[in-house]
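Can't paste images in this forum, so I'm doing it all in text. The chain is below; anyone willing to post the predicted structure tokens underneath?
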Amino acid sequence: MGPTRVYDQEKHPALGQSPREAWESGLDLGGPREHRRIRYDDVFRVLTLPGSPRETALVYRNHGIQFHYLLYWNDVFASPGIIGTKVKLRFDPFDISHIYVYVHNHWVECITSSYYGQLHGHSEREIMLASAELREQNRESHVRTPIDAKRLADFLAKIEAYEAVLLQRQRDIENQIVVYHIEQKSAEVANTPQPVLQEMLNSHRANDATLSRFAPIDLTTLQVYEEFR
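Text version of the structure:
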């Protein structure tokens, strides 16, 4: 098959025609069937997100939905008949600052309004690890401090600041090492007398000239000795 020939335009031995012709014949017989096409839109994206272990969540008055110690709200919860009902829930595992719930026959987005900026971009896994660490702190201190959005946001902020400081410290140390070697090299060159430098240069040149006088060694002519045991 040449480089200009296309597979779907070539006659297929099993079909008796080209794949494109077979596809067009199928469209003529059955129609395009647009009603069976799945569009990649917001609804499809939400439906492919994971749900909560219980599949549904309860809508609380004045608080909305609680998920992983966080409270999520959407103004649709203020509609009559929503408070106290259970709704389907989907969440983004890579951004826990928002979730999706199924209300009034469509999906709506709910956000952690009070700490959206601090929690935006943090994954569900981060929240779970942070929650476990805070529970361990409560156990060790024998103080039952509630785990809420504020504590989680503060904890994650401290971790980010700590990691940023560590990263900057690592960069500073690397820069100091580079500067140290540069200064050491400069000091060695500056403290070396000029005649010594010239002598070193001449020595290198003499070694190169000496090596160039030797003929290449033919390894096949070398004597092979017995293996030492």
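The chain has a mean pLDDT of 79. The two ends are 61 Å apart (CA to CA).
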